[in-house]
Fold this protein.
Amino acid sequence: MKIESTEFTATDVQGFLDEMLDHERTVLADRLEKASARLARLAPRVEAGHGGDAWSAHEVLAHITVLSKFYGVLVHKISSGQLTEVDLLSNVNLRDVVGAQMAEIAPSDLLQMALADHARTLKLLRATEARSLRQEAKLEDGRTISADQIARLPLINHLELHVDQLERALG
């Protein structure tokens, strides 16, 4: 086997990392597409109503709608360089207030809103370049988070967890 690594430059390493991130971008888009399809199958069974101490299926769907919009917009704004600072903590603190407002909307309308947001984010993930997903925003504590990390963790992982929760709630 020919040893090539001794000839690698910083540009070669960055190209390798871009190739891996490009692969990850495709995997993330596939995961978002699958979670969105599961949501589309489950949500028509959601009945309007509020839970007690635990969220009702309707409230879970409202939360999914909120997170789909919020984190999808963050992925777009960070990856395009439009947003360089984000206060996640303040926005997370508003989550329950916005979720309660959204839970007043009919489940069928919530589903359509969430699916539309997923479609926009899917389009972005399928079309953007790896270097755009590497773009970062500064968090309130001084650390940074990339568009890729927002897509992977608070958007797609979070969505998958709540779609699982919705599935359990619906039996």
In short: The longest helix spans residues 10-42. DSSP finds six helices and three strands in the chain.
